[in-house]
Amino acid sequence: METKTTTYTPSDVGCYVDNARGIYMTDRIVDIANKHGANIKHDCDSNGYPDGTCWDDVSENNSQFAGCQFAHEFVDQASDYMNEHYGVNNCYWGTSDTFGDWGLWAVVDDLS
């Protein structure tokens, strides 16, 4: 797997995985983190999740996470990895509060 090493700046803020991908978002998000050096694998048993938490494969596109009840946990792992290793001041890797897209977002203080 190709490892992408880069530095991000506030000019890189934006959507990296569109919410339109639906249940397949997790595959792309984990792929981005893994290409940056993470080693996130879909293995619910070794991650301490109860047996039977993953449903049968629901896709024909080799999705690892589309049938996983705990897909959000893998998104959290990917986001945490990207924030720890590729963090940007006053920005965060994760899901947008507004649209559910995943990417690098500016932290905006709510002054209301």
Describe this protein's structure.
By secondary structure, the chain is α+β, with helices and mostly antiparallel strands. It has one domain (about 10-105). The protein has helices at about 25-35, 70-85, and strands at about 15, 90-95, 100-105. A 3-stranded antiparallel beta sheet has the order 1-3-2. A hairpin with a 6-residue loop joins strand 2 (about 90-95) and strand 3. The longest helix has 16 residues, at about 70-85. The chain starts with 13 loop residues before the first strand and ends in a 6-residue tail after the last strand.
Write the layout of secondary structure elements.
Blueprint: E1 14-17, H1 25-35, H2 71-86, E2 91-95, E3 102-106
Antiparallel strand pairs: 1-3, 2-3
Helix pairs in contact: 1-2
Which key terms come to mind for this protein?
112 residues, single chain, alpha+beta, three-stranded antiparallel β-sheet, 2 helices
